[in-house]
């Protein structure tokens, strides 16, 4: 789950983006790029970063270091989401982007803090380049919805993976009963029929058993799945513990892997992710408090992790972290902060 991040610099960026005009200003400092829940794609010679913000924040870069604000994706804010999610005001969380069959698919979360009254929606575009005559976001509405007092899961933090057979899957989830994966149909705009669901990650040892998990998130803090294929394995990255609390954040990134996209996923010690496993690969250091909500992407044959961290040199505001991934001899990722 995400708390609405209010950053002075980010607010200024969003006001430019929301105006619908291309921002005519210098790029943001490469060392201090304010962002939350980043994911990055490459199109027409540029990198495009999508992240939590009003209508989904967008930035572009030529080098993954100097970022410029672009127009927000959802403008106007979808009426269906405002009606479906009480309290949703357009501040849209945790997007994921994938290119498939000539279209860019952008998945996003509509929710409010500490509630599983949430929806995942999807929009498409032929290009990410706002200068192209083909550039136009089309919103296709809701894919899935979780309802308080009905569901023990939370419809936020989507991640899309297409398996070795060409089948699209959507991983998602935050707190409650953990992370899940469900099959999409060929259009990638709705769930398959019949539906197919699988559990991915759960932290049962933290659950007191006394909470009504249909209405209370509990304390099984796992969210933000991201599945990355490497050397015959599916690697499931997830964020454990708490984000969005500034200097009190203790977010961290853990990983488990499986030979099949639906699992089961095991950590380096052979413990199941569904039994609270997970090998920690990124956590707080002297500069960053609470690092997480990652995306793992390959560019030019090199693997990178994008995530945010609460930077103690910037009053614990949420800043972009980009690091290369190396793989050890046993095929496990190494990330040096």
Structural write-up:
- With 337 residues, the protein is mostly beta strands.
- It has one domain (8-334): Glycosyl hydrolase domain, family 43 (Tachylectin-2, Chain A), CATH 2.115.10.20.
- It has 2 helices and 22 strands.
- The protein has helices spanning 8-18, 79-84; strands at 39-43, 46-51, 53-54, 57-61, 67-69, 91-100, 103-110, 118-125, 138-146, 159-162, 168-172, 179-183, 197-201, 222-230, 233-240, 252-258, 279-282, 288-299, 302-311, 317-324, 326-327, 333-334.
- The strands form 6 sheets. Strands 3-6-7-8-9 form a 5-stranded antiparallel sheet. A 4-stranded antiparallel sheet has the order 1-2-4-5.
- The model is unreliable at 3-25 and 205-214 (pLDDT under 50).
**Rough shape?**
globular
Number of spatially distinct domains: 1
CATH topology: Tachylectin-2, Chain A
Q: SSE string, helix = H, strand = E?
A: HEEEEEHEEEEEEEEEEEEEEEEE
For the biggest sheet, the summary is: 5 strands, antiparallel
**Widest beta sheet: strand line-up:** 3-6-7-8-9
Can you give the helix content as a percent range? under 10%
CATH architecture: 5 Propeller
Question: Total strand count, please?
Answer: 22
Q: How widely separated are the two ends?
A: 24 Å
Give me the number of helical elements: 2
* Beta fraction: 35-45%
The CATH fourth-level homologous superfamily: Glycosyl hydrolase domain, family 43
Short description:
With 337 residues, the chain is mainly β. The protein has two helices and 22 strands. It has one domain: 5 Propeller (Tachylectin-2, Chain A).
Q: What distinguishing features does this structure have?
A:
337 residues, Tachylectin-2, Chain A, five-stranded antiparallel β-sheet, 22 strands, globular, disordered N terminus
